[in-house]
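Let us practice reading a record.
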Amino acid sequence: MKNYLLICFLFLGNFVFSQESKISGTVLDNLSQPMPGVSIEIKGTNKGTITNFDGEYDVKASLGQTLVFTFMGFDPREVVIDRTLIDIQMVAGTMLGEVVLIGSRSPSRTVIESAVPVDVLDIKEISTAVPQVNLNQMLNYVAPSFTSNTQTIADGTDHIDPASLRGLGPDQVLVLINGKRRHNSSLINVNGSFGRGSVGTDLNAIPVVAIQRIEVLRDGAAAQYGSDAIAGVINIILNETVGELDLNITSGANFSKNANKQTGGIDGETINVAASYGIGLGDKGGFINFSGDFDYREPFNRMAEWEGSIFNAYNAIERVGLSNGIDISNLSNSQIQQLGQQVSYFDSNFKNEIASANDRSALQDLLGMDVTESELNARGQKRSDYNMRVGQSALRGGRFFANLSLPIDDAGTELYSFAGISSRRGESAGFYRLPNQSKKTYTPVYINGFLPRINSKIKDQSLAVGIKGIVGDWNIDFSNTYGQNRFDYLISNTSNASLEGASPTSFDAGGFSFAQNTTNLDISQYFVDVYKGLNVAFGAEHRLEKYDIVAGERASYEQYTENGDVINNATQIPAQDFFGNERRGGSQVFPGFSPENEISRERTSIAGYFDVEVDFTDKFLLAFATRFENYSDFGSTVNFKLASRYKLSENVNIRGSVNTGFRAPSLHQLNFNSTSTIFNDEGEPVQVGTFSNDSRTAKLLGIPKLKEETSSSLSVGLTAKIPDANLSFTVDGYFVAIDDRVVYTGQFRGPGTGTELDQLLSQANATAAAFFANAINTESKGIDAVITHNSFFGKNLRLKSELAATFSKTKQVGDILASPELERADLVDTYFPEDSRIYLEEAVPRTKVNLSNSLAAGKFNFFLRNVYFGKVTEASSDPLRQQEFNGKVITDLSVSFKATEALTLTIGSNNIFDIYPEAADPAFGNRSSGRFDWSRSAQQFGFSGRFLFARVSINLK
């Protein structure tokens, strides 16, 4: 009887549960807004529906079945049906179920099913909570494999932050916008910073508010996308929203114990105003979206006090003479002797020695004495009055982007375009030119010396136009993309010391520009009936690049005689200071580009690619790509990529790829030539001339011509998701070998005996020469991991947690690739010096771990992020100066309150605990007499300290 009742009960239960019921509910986004168009599928069936305009849905299903909710830009949700009313909140962010455009040309490949690692970042959600407002810094804290830091005392690099993937160079990552190649910056990094010798892409020219999401491909892709894609690809997808106004106003400042020259307080004030609005076009889903922002930031200074010498005894005599109304530009011996008696702190013996000096040489020997402390007292000054500015530059800029899509028929033909323009003006400072540095400082004009300023004017513009549609069964995409970046220098509060009193105090120092025009034809078709799906793609590309250097005004680069004549031969004598030293030519801190530097160089490249991707079974995916490319200035290359993914189960995949790659030397590296102020291990400025590899200077030293870098790489990974636990993770290991890597060499000096090399350096206002060269081979290896978890505690409480980490190591392998001439001259260690090795291997964190938590609780959202930046090493050529700085954890915290449907208020902090890197230990000798209490060459997370911010976000629909 019992068995009979049990069988009846089971039969009845099965009957009840098999009956379909109407399941309904509302789907909300992470901001608790209704989501129209969400796909809802009954798992394991072909049944489903989508939400209406109010985010509502209903579908017939049985209790015990599973509903799968998916929408572009959000993590998929799976919910077991245990009731008839089910409300869902979707989660945006790093979306492993997202269909991606990068890494695969298949039209339906998701992140977790991809054969290569791809991160997808929802910028709209991220930008609401985080304190960063520029793209470089936002990615630095969000994507562990991405590295970028604001530089200081690095000339133009103070204004454009170099950025990289997987610890490789800034020029080894390719940037796309809407899948189209973005042009590079015109700036080449030649000063003391990570990425020295490389050219990157200026991501900060793109307003964050214009971005819908970012796809980061962490795998070599030169066989798919061409030169530069050795480390990976960053694809920026622009906004497509319509009928919606987004307005964000963010203001903040550093509230730090070391603000204001380490006295504490507030500095580095910033404000950013950003807006985006889209308009629908036609009745076929067309749109145009306009986005732009404006920002302003004040500089800050982290130098406490200059500890070195400032004045010599002759400076004291100049002060006394100036106070007496005497022209101190050309004091006679007798005037010097008379004024020497009026310096109050000179003792009687010293005054007697001055009075009894027989000639100028005797006075020179006497008056070079350091009198800094006494002279500071006499002038009523303190040492900090002679500080340089060690910290971020001042910046004012605006950016504007537009994104257009216009369907023109019912067959899928679409005209599209996107364009951008940006303008920024920056101001950074160089080393203070002290009164006792009379070769650089003309004291009759600058009696207290001067702090020279580098003012940048950076303009960026781009335009892409294309048409895509279907011809037969083939998808055709034809496009043209143009971009230009221009960087001009205005040097102010400075002088040409050799012009003495006739020198201007500001100079147009010239500049450079880079333009790129890319034409693409892409053809593809997805064959649904071949195996489990076959995608075939092929296409062609033509690219034109142009690089220009424009000369500055004459006084910015020339050296002059005492009579004001330009030095143009070795018999002429430059103007001299009191001590008989030659006064320096050119504008101090940044000598202008001369007509000899001026160039206008072009090159073209043509490429063709073939790409096939096939799902042989539901479990096994195999992809192959190959690309031929020919450059007009160095020849041809063929590269390939083979990638695969195998599904161990419905939720676990293994994947891997092997590929070859290349990077053509940039036009900048091939042609840049100029004189720049670069700093030695003691922190002292040295005028270094950068010469092209086909110059006479390069030939004299045996510097070989540049050629392309080539690479081979391998990656293996595992992806998995546990739907019941709302948990997903990926882990990928990689190895990249790069041959003939282009670096910026050390400083070659002439013998000082009047040789041709000495004369060439003198003509360039330089004391040393440097070049770009294929000097080394390198290997990089590492592991990237991402774990994402979502927890739901009722309808209005949701916690999203993400742990992401990168562990990487890059090292030089084999011998330095020096020419026989360099080996015979024993200059191999100058060709690739020790500090260059540190910049390559140890100057940025090799370990970075990011733990982010976002808690949505009704109208509140709490964001907490901890980022561990690993250890770094001081980039010095002297092993005894190579201080190692331990890793630190930086904590960000913010709280958002949704006051109304349209208004959200956010307050928070970056680096809330006011953490600084380890200080420079005086025992290593890297402080440069108090200039650098924190390393300027080894960057972890900067040294700005705690940053507090407030944000008002308005969303009108």
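A brief commentary: The chain is about 10% helix and 45% strand.
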